[in-house]
Amino acid sequence: MIPKELVDFIRALGVFPVVLGTVDRDSNQHLTFITWVYPLDDRTIRFALSSKATSAKNIAETGKVSFMIFGANIALAIYGKAKLILDSIEEVKFPVSVFEASVERVENVLFPGGTVTGPIPFAHTGDLLKASELDELVLSALRKQL
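Request: output the structure for the sequence above.
Response:
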């Protein structure tokens, strides 16, 4: 499952960029970049998306998800099934849904002779205060017991 050190690191970092993969009912694949991710434990990942996102629609159709997670000396492909657990976060002014993925399989996808030096570099642009406030609202919802 997800290594404990990685679970702890993602929780401590707060906003943690990953690549989310989903599949629609016709087996069309979709990839997107997300940062609202919170592992509840080594087998459960809670995450948030715009309610209108293609990924949200795909999860409703098939539930199939994958995550590419990068950290220092780590590149993991995580596969599982996700479900909607909160249609909308009340405190957020636009529709953001919360999903929960049950981890079915984790693969180390680093190749011999290569490594990753850390997580995907990420920084907000624009109004940093508003972005930080939004992140905290969403991450607080991800941490709640629903």
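Residues 4-143 form a domain with the Pnp Oxidase; Chain A fold (CATH 2.30.110.10).
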